[in-house]
């Protein structure tokens, strides 16, 4: 394990709990001067100290992990690289900022997000004036990234909901339906024409839960479990949403939906049983889907949440994209990162999945910084059956660091140690510094700035 210097983060945790250095030092069984040196980054946080900090301050020691900071470093680097007329910021400076002042780093991301929203509104208004159309109001703010950031801060693991879901005595579809009925809720199915917008609709006044008849049994069970979570654990979910400190009603509604879906996944795939099965079957997603009666995407999503302290699963990155490259889901328990401002990489295996539906594809991919990952990808679709019926089509991908790839069944037959077996991919054209990429769509901001810097150097 590399040395960890995150003194400002430790100091912030101590101050949030209104503890003096002397009090925390006593609780950790170290001298106040030792604690003072750690908070001033003059001494590293050792593994035994990290474990004691986690116990005393009741936090997951992984908040001091470099993996926890790497995606935030990459996000801030993207934002600063996208600002015109600014000097390049070194990676060492960014790491120091994120590791010691993560709140400031997240504030930078929030400022950039608001700037982007303001720019979009300005462009919309300009287009309306240019076309002599009446003003139809400003663009509604998107809350998806804010909810995603909240889940990433929790490392995609919501222990309170996992514990609540594991207490369910029976997670079968019939048991979930009966449990809803005991709460006075009637479960009915509706025609599948609304599947693109409503997988479930709950009428609180009539106490009727409508499910689309285009869903299969496992999908209906998932939606019943999600609604059950909103009813039986409303107070817990409200508390989690409040603690998230989201900025808008849309973000709070999105968080409530995400948390109810998290509960549903945890109910159908209870943490302990699911982790044991995953390890037993070497993370064979199709076998896990069959065992727990869920879909391929649901298993991938669940694998990205297995971060229980002392009982964690394989650290993975999960993403879902459409044919146009829009990323609709992105969760990471690793240091892997794709840019928010430059799109994703066309050389990434996830896009090949659209041309080979039904097959699980594999790729060893190497990032510009040398980080190498094993990726699997598969095409999935949802929607009603029938000729010309509307449906949704996505590709989902699951990846892990190459050092952990041997734990996956998908690594069998691959030479994980051969550098030539890896496909060079990037974080997105705008912020990718590969100068020899055959698939580049437009110039890199980083490369153009390096050229400007070299011309200005005497």
TrEMBL record:
<dbReference type="InterPro" id="IPR026281">
    <property type="entry name" value="HTH_RamB"/>
</dbReference>
<dbReference type="GO" id="GO:0003677">
    <property type="term" value="F:DNA binding"/>
</dbReference>
<keyword id="KW-0805">Transcription regulation</keyword>
<dbReference type="InterPro" id="IPR050807">
    <property type="entry name" value="TransReg_Diox_bact_type"/>
</dbReference>
<dbReference type="Pfam" id="PF09856">
    <property type="entry name" value="ScfRs"/>
</dbReference>
<keyword id="KW-0804">Transcription</keyword>
<dbReference type="GO" id="GO:0003700">
    <property type="term" value="F:DNA-binding transcription factor activity"/>
</dbReference>
<dbReference type="Pfam" id="PF01381">
    <property type="entry name" value="HTH_3"/>
</dbReference>
<dbReference type="Pfam" id="PF06114">
    <property type="entry name" value="Peptidase_M78"/>
</dbReference>
<comment type="similarity">
    <text>Belongs to the short-chain fatty acyl-CoA assimilation regulator (ScfR) family.</text>
</comment>
<keyword id="KW-0238">DNA-binding</keyword>
<feature type="domain" description="HTH cro/C1-type">
    <location>
        <begin position="10"/>
        <end position="64"/>
    </location>
</feature>
<dbReference type="InterPro" id="IPR010982">
    <property type="entry name" value="Lambda_DNA-bd_dom_sf"/>
</dbReference>
<protein>
    <submittedName>
        <fullName>XRE family transcriptional regulator</fullName>
    </submittedName>
</protein>
<dbReference type="InterPro" id="IPR001387">
    <property type="entry name" value="Cro/C1-type_HTH"/>
</dbReference>
<dbReference type="GO" id="GO:0005829">
    <property type="term" value="C:cytosol"/>
</dbReference>
<dbReference type="InterPro" id="IPR010359">
    <property type="entry name" value="IrrE_HExxH"/>
</dbReference>
<dbReference type="InterPro" id="IPR018653">
    <property type="entry name" value="ScfR_C"/>
</dbReference>
């Amino acid at each position: 394990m590399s040395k960890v210097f995150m003194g400002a983060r430790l100091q912030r945790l101590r101050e949030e709990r209104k503890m003096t250095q002397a009090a925390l030092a006593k609780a950790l069984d170290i001298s106040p001067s030792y604690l003072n040196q750690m908070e001033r980054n003059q001494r590293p946080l050792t593994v035994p100290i990290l474990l004691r900090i986690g116990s005393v301050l009741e936090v997951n020691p992984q908040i001091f992990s470099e993996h926890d900071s790497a995606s935030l470093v990459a996000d801030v680097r993207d934002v600063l690289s996208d600002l015109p007329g600014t000097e390049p910021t070194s990676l060492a400076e960014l790491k120091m900022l994120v590791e010691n002042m993560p709140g400031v780093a997240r504030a930078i991301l929030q400022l950039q997000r608001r700037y982007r929203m303001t720019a979009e509104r300005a462009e919309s208004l300009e287009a309306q004036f240019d076309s002599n159309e009446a003003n139809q109001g400003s663009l509604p703010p998107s809350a998806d990234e804010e909810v995603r950031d909240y889940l990433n801060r929790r490392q995609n693991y919501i222990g309170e909901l996992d514990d609540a879901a594991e207490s369910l005595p029976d997670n079968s579809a019939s048991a979930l339906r009966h449990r809803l009925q005991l709460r006075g809720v009637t479960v009915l199915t509706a025609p599948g024409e609304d599947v693109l917008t409503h997988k479930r609709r709950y009428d609180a006044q009539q106490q009727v839960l409508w499910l689309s008849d285009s869903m299969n049994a496992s999908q209906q069970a998932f939606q019943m479990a999600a609604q059950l979570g909103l009813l039986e654990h409303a107070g817990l979910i409200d508390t989690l949403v409040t603690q998230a400190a989201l900025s808008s009603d849309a973000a709070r509604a999105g968080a409530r939906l995400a948390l109810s879906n998290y509960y549903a996944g945890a109910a159908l795939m209870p943490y302990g049983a699911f982790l044991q099965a995953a390890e037993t079957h070497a993370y064979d997603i199709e076998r896990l889907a069959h065992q727990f009666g869920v879909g391929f995407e649901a298993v991938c999503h669940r694998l990205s949440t297995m971060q229980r302290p002392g009982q964690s699963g394989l650290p993975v990155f999960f993403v879902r994209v459409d044919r146009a490259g829009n990323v609709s889901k992105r969760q990471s328990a690793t240091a892997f990162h794709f840019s928010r401002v430059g799109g994703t990489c066309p050389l990434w295996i996830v896009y090949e999945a659209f041309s080979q539906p039904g097959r699980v594809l594999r790729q060893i991919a190497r990032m510009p910084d040398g980080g190498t990952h094993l990726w699997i990808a598969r095409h999935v679709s949802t929607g009603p059956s029938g000729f010309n019926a509307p449906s949704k089509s996505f590709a989902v991908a699951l990846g892990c660091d190459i050092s952990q790839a041997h734990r996956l069944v998908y690594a069998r037959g691959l030479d994980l140690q051969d550098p030539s077996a890896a496909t060079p991919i990037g974080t997105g054209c705008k912020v990718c510094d590969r100068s020899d990429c055959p698939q580049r769509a437009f110039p890199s901001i980083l490369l153009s700035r390096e050229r400007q810097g070299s011309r200005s150097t005497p």
